[in-house]
From TrEMBL:
Organism: Rubripirellula amarantea
SUPFAM superfamilies associated with the record: Nucleotidylyl transferase (SSF52374)
Protein name: Nicotinate-nucleotide adenylyltransferase
Length: 475
């Protein structure tokens, strides 16, 4: 199963003017625009193209905080999902209350809202925003909803506002015309823009029109299309916004294929957490633990297999782990991404084999400073790497970060990073886990060898058996 649709060709790209006019000329659509911050950038398009009277019931901006609180209730922050949801719920319900009896049989009502922090005068703030639409796909229909989080990357406030207006028009047009094909809707969000101007790092579909949508697949779609470098979802399958999830927390990441999650994966996380949580700057703080899948890993066979992706997501979820999907194959890029959202300590745990790969210079030929630049960027914020030992199945030798074979010309660099605490060995591991390799477990599942069940957590085994994942076949 792949993202591309065999039945529906990709529609031609429409410019923003045409999209806004299409919405205005659709006699079924009628609703409210409520925008906080960055001006009335979205609704301006619908006024500008003409025929807006048939679409716009009300346009407003509760720019003053006290005015906003009086309308939507108090909020801890004004640019957050909580505030956006309050705006959507309030404005949509108000439309239904006032207009449903008068024109409900022929009108599909909607409420569009955004709350945005564009570049301030001094250029010191985070430029981001929440945007969403709550709507009826058909008159008298139950409600449906799309919420997105955007990061504005232009250097000038005017350009950020322009980009915001275009994204808003794309979202509204997509909600009305592509709700039955959400993958095409996601594709169309940056029509008229580029990923150098806008990043969309979260999208959440809900309601009657999207009852069959798996938001984990939509998160994957954002990364695959390059709309963001990474996306997240919780163990419950709910999409997460990274800046809110990681906000002011120490972070521990384990990268892997997780085909499937094995006992060794959980032991690696546990050991790293035991060490990491004892650091003076981390002690007594809530450490966020995340399992990360890279696009390189998901595309290892050429294209993304959706069933394989959902299998991995489900086994990670069964362990209660949030999942990060990233396009950051190089660890220094992952570190830079995480540093964007927290000033607390960051740690990555990996096996000794992965550490050897980390010192392979072929991965840094694209950097002007080569491997030195890579490590300078990776460790600049005191990042920690915790190394789990590797048992050589042929020789029986235990490979740790103390006896790891490093090229002579890189040995001094390696020792320096180790001596300053950037690279540390894990000692409190379970020796039984050293014999477990996911590729071996995967092969046993395919071969019908039931010994695989002792190599994975019981919750993982239950999911694999229940859903016949990884080519499992009941006896």
């Amino acid at each position: 199963m792949h993202f591309s649709s065999a039945t529906s060709p990709t529609p031609p790209t429409l410019d923003t003017h045409k999209k806004a006019l299409d919405v205005n000329l659709d006699a079924r659509r009628y609703g409210t625009f409520a925008e906080i911050g960055a001006g009335q950038e979205v609704v301006r398009w619908f006024f500008r193209v003409g025929a807006g009277a048939g679409t716009i019931a009300k346009s407003m901006s509760a720019y003053d905080m006290k005015v906003s609180d009086a309308i939507y209730g108090r909020a801890s922050r004004y640019v957050c999902r909580e505030r956006l949801q309050a705006m959507l719920d309030y404005e949509h319900e108000l439309n239904l209350e006032r207009l449903r009896d008068v024109r409900g049989d022929t009108t599909a009502f909607f409420a569009f809202a955004d709350t945005v922090s564009a570049r301030n005068y001094h250029g010191t703030n985070e430029c981001h925003g929440w945007m969403g639409i709550k709507f009826q796909a058909h008159p008298r229909d139950e409600d449906s909803e799309i919420i997105i989080h955007v990061r504005m990357l232009d250097d000038e406030a005017a350009l950020q506002q322009e980009a915001l207006g275009i994204v808003g028009v794309n979202l509204i047009h997509g909600a009305f015309n592509l709700y039955h094909e959400p993958e095409l809707l996601v594709n169309a969000l940056l029509d008229g823009l580029s990923t150098s101007r806008i990043e969309i790092d979260m999208i959440d579909f809900s309601g009657i029109a999207f009852r069959h949508v798996d938001n984990r697949l939509m998160s994957l779609k954002l990364v695959e299309l390059g709309l963001t470098g990474a996306a997240m979802f919780s163990a419950a399958g709910e999409v997460l916004q990274p800046s809110e999830f990681f906000y002011r927390k120490p972070i521990l990441v384990e990268r892997g294929s997780f085909r499937p999650v094995c006992n060794v994966n959980l032991d690696m996380l546990k050991c790293a957490h035991d060490e990491f949580s004892q650091l003076p700057n981390v002690k007594d703080k809530e450490v966020v633990q995340v399992m990360e899948l890279t696009m390189n890993n998901l595309k290892s066979t050429g294209s993304i297999d959706m069933r394989d992706f959902l299998a991995r997501a489900d086994v990670m979820a069964s362990c209660g782990m949030p999942v990060l999907i990233s396009d950051y194959f190089q660890y220094f890029r992952l570190a830079a991404y995480l540093s964007r959202y927290t000033k607390e300590n960051i740690a990555i745990t990996m096996g000794a084999g992965s550490l050897m790969d980390l010192f392979d210079e072929q991965y840094y030929t694209g950097l002007q400073g080569g491997i030195l630049e890579s490590f300078g960027r990776l460790f600049k914020n005191d990042l920690k790497i915790y190394v789990y030992p590797l048992l050589d199945s042929e020789t029986g030798e235990l490979i740790t970060c103390d006896n790891l074979e490093i090229k002579p010309e890189l040995k001094n660099l390696y020792n320096y990073l180790k001596d300053r605490g950037g690279i540390s060995a894990l000692h409190n591991y379970d020796p039984e886990c050293l014999k477990i390799f996911s590729r071996d477990v995967l092969q046993r599942i395919k071969n019908g060898d039931s010994t695989w069940e002792s190599m994975v957590p019981s919750c993982v085994a239950a999911v694999i058996r229940e859903k016949n994942y990884f080519a499992f076949r009941p006896a």
